[in-house]
Each structure stands twice: as structure tokens, then as C-alpha cells.
Amino acid sequence: MSEVGEAFVAGFGRPDPPAPNGIFFPRPFHARWWSDIHGEIGSGWFMDRFLYLFGEGLDVFLPCLEAWSFVAGAARERMIVGRNAYGALLVAEEPSERGITSPVAMLDPLNVRYWTHPDMVFGNLIGNWLPTRSLPDFFDTSLYDAWRRVTGDELQLSEALAIKEPKPLGGRMEAGNFQIEDVVDYYLTTGPIYARALGESGR
Q1: 143-192: per-residue pLDDT in tens?
Q2: Residue 54, SS3 per DSSP
Q3: Pick from 44, 143, 170, 176: CA 20 to 30 A from residue 101's CA?
Q4: Other CB atoms closer than 10 Å to residue 21's CB: what's the count?
Q5: Residue 136 and residue 2: Cα distance in Å, rounded?
């Protein structure tokens, strides 16, 4: 197994349940690299269904980027490569051109931001940023774990345990500030509200 695969599997184990691959790169070198790595790590649900990574169906969340363009910026080629239970999305930029060197960003509903780092690209997202838990707030399972213990429910791919009032507007990580919502509907509904509220608060 490759070092990238070993690091990822050490951090997350195998997908449970697995899902078919949803990541495709047109350039042959990048396609072969991903085929080999995917064979080692798989795709689907991880961390008791807190994370859904690299599986099919993630493209349905692309409208979320447009809805939150006030933080994500202008439309360009992007590919959703993962998400967590709170509806945060991992986004590869310009995947057709950049492939496994595509810059990766996180659309973060807890903090209403599009967070990235100059050293984070698709390849080292798998071998470093994810297994070392280096994405801020992306791995905070405290509220999700409590919800699972109380309800025993499982989120579907289309659903998120969504924050009602985000942190920049005074919201806290507590049960009363979260509810189950459709991910796309959440971003479409909150986009204009947060854009206006955060714009006004920054004046």
C-alpha cells in the first residue's frame, strides 16, 4: 500500500458502508493515480457516518457554491469531494486541469466561510489534511455524537445536522442550535440571509 493510502486508512479505516467512486479526472496520469489510491482507501461513509468522502452523488451539492458565492467567489469548475454531518463541503478547484494537484477548499456553514490553505491540494488532502484532522472545525463530532446517542438516527446523503445560527452571528455548538435539513435547501435559503447579515455586521 502507498504512504498516502496507509495514512488515510490509519486515520479512518475502511468505508462503512462503502459507496461507488464519485471522483473522476480526465487526464490519464491523474486518473491512474486516483484509481490506485481509491483501490486502497475506498469511498463512502466514515466515522460512524459523520463523513462521506469520494463517493458518487456529491455533485448534487454544486448549487451550494453558487448560493454561497458571497464567500465561495465567482463560478468556476469545481468538484465536491466530500462532506461532513454539518453540511461542510470539501471542494476541488479546476479538477479537469489540475487533477490531483487541484487546490481544495472547505465551504463551512458553522463559520460561514470558504476556507483553504496554500499547501492543501487533492493528493495531500488524502494523505495529510484529512488523517491528521487539520481542517478547522471539520472534525468536531461532539454534537453529532450526542445526537446519534439520543436518536439512534442516521443522516442520508442529502441531509445535514445544520446549524441554525452560525458562529459569526453568535450561534453556539449546542443541540438547540441545530436541526436536520436538506443540504442544498439549507444553502439556498441561508445564502442571501447570511450575505446580508454578515455584510451589515462588517460595516
Answers
A1: 999 999 999 999 999 999 999 999 999 999 999 999 999 999 999 999 99
A2: coil
A3: 44
A4: 16
A5: 26
Q: Please give the full DSSP string across 136-189, using - where no structure is assigned.
A: TTTT--HHHHHHHHHH-----TTEEEEESS-GGGT--SSGGGEEEEEHHHHHHH
Q: What is the tally of structural domains in the chain?
A: 1
CB 180 within 8 A of CB 61: no
Closest-CA residue to 48 (of 124, 132, 146, 131): 146
C-alpha cell at 90: 470539501
Predicted confidence (pLDDT) per residue in 108-147, tens digit: 999 999 999 999 999 999 999 999 999 999 999 999 999 9
Alpha-carbon Rg for the chain in angstroms: 17
Is the distance from CB of 50 to CB of 144 less than 8 angstroms? yes
Range of the structural domain that residue 83 is part of: 3-201
* DSSP letters for 89-106: EEEEESHHHHGGG-EEEE
* Residue 108, CB-side half-sphere exposure with 13 Å CA sphere: 19
Q: Cα–Cα distance between 161 and 178 in angstroms, integer?
A: 6
Using CA atoms, how far apart are residues 63 and 187, in angstroms rounded to an integer? 8
Identity of the residue numbered 117: H
